[in-house]
Amino acid sequence: MVLEHYISDLLYRYNCVVVPGFGAFLTQKNSARINQVTNTFSAPNKSIAFNKQLISNDGLLVSYVSESEKITFESALSSIEEQVKVWQNILAQETSLILKDIGSLSRNNEDKILFQPASEPNYLTSSFGLSNFNSIPVTREVLKKEVVELEENIPFVISPERRENIGFRPYLKYAAILLLAFSTGVTGYRAFKQQRTNEQVARQDAQEYVTKQIQEATFFDLSPLELPTVTVEASVTASPTTNESEMHYIVAGAFRVKSNADRKIEQLKAIGYNAGYYGTNAYGLHMVTYESHSNSSDALKALREIKRTESKDAWLLSKK
Fold first, then answer.
1. CA–CA distance, 121 with 115 (Å, rounded to integer)
2. Domain termination residue (choose one: 85, 113, 134)
3. What's the domain range around 148?
4. pLDDT for residue 223
């Protein structure tokens, strides 16, 4: 039985794993870190520590070994105690005890146990797949700074006698000015080019998003419904009438792609609606209806039921 294998398994799920009669391995969560000197990024992890004072059996390790090895609790405890004796003999001989994936233990001159945790693995499950990496420092352009330094080192005003003595070439001044102008122009062009690139990318992303929304969107008329006006004269109760020349359609949606409209019709028919294809609207969108009614009262009643059970965005279209 490799006891450290079971200890390692439990460290992924628990913050404390006690080895009866030997000590406890503790974990503590650490945040991500950046080493400014080595430019190393360390992912969030769990650091491991050892406490030899915690030796009471809490049953966690023994139960896990018993379940994994398919043996009784007493047999698992006996096996752990034998393994602990072996570990203690190794430490008594002043040699290091190496536990795979956990760390190494050793005794110092003061007979104290020293623990050095293993660098791998990372016991923080939320950081699974993350590893440490080095980042190359970013070197930025210093063209302008170099030109300024060059300008400071080249004298621009020199007497004729001094010019003859040192052989000063007047065109160096203009070369420095041209170099400064060139570096400034290059920097400005790069900034302008980067801005244009960002604008083009943003415009392209926006166009793709709008196109996708138009193709899949359903357009609805959100204007309030106008109920039919009923005129009541003296001693006469008006009743809803049917206008044979007018049809009332309960609209389910409008689609840019005809195949999406056909698919919507099939879905509505599958749940019992007399769905149909109305045609295209002023925007060129294909309109789909739940059903149609020649009686306005029936249409309003059906619309209320559909808005309650199917879609709040359904609306009524009356056509003469």
1. 16
2. 134
3. 143-195
4. 40
